[in-house]
TrEMBL record:
It comes from the Bacteria. Keywords: DNA-binding, Transcription, Transcription regulation. This is GntR family transcriptional regulator. Residues 11-79 form the HTH gntR-type domain. One of its GO terms (molecular function) is DNA-binding transcription factor activity. SUPFAM superfamilies: Winged helix' DNA-binding domain (SSF46785). It comes from Fumia xinanensis. The keyword DNA-binding applies. The keyword Metal-binding does not apply.
Length: 125
């Protein structure tokens, strides 16, 4: 599992881990029932505290992305279609807020931005 930690990111490390694992699950690169590295192994691979990886896994479990079985490990939880759709909506909303900020900074109008979204939506995969 490829997780990249950025020390210059404004996000805490546990959030970076959780968000990247969520993305892997949502994209289907991590499949339902697939096991995740143990908390200790992931901490060792990333050269971070076990407490940090534990926090990321706890957040993922709380949000319904993984299930932890004592003595066996953590596994990708069965997908709840509505929950996955809601997570996609949150990610799109976040990206759109960033796009709006860039548009305003660059003097691009709401109409121009909407037109650009329509063009990209129809032509991009």
């Amino acid at each position: 599992m490829d997780i990249i930690i950025s020390n210059s990111s404004g996000k805490p490390i546990y959030e970076q881990i959780a968000s990247q694992i969520k993305s892997l699950i949502i994209s289907g690169r991590l499949k339902e029932g697939e096991s995740l590295p143990s908390i200790r192994l992931l901490a060792k691979e990333l050269r971070i505290s076990v407490i940090t990886t534990k926090r990321a896994y706890e957040d993922l479990e709380r949000d319904g992305f993984i299930e932890t079985v004592p003595g066996k490990g953590s596994f990708v939880a069965p997908k709840n279609v509505e929950f996955v759709r809601e997570e996609h909506m949150r990610q799109v909303e976040s990206a759109l807020f960033e796009a709006i900020r860039w548009a305003k900074t660059g003097g691009i109008t709401a109409g121009e931005l909407k037109e650009l979204i329509d063009i990209l939506f129809d032509h991009e995969a």
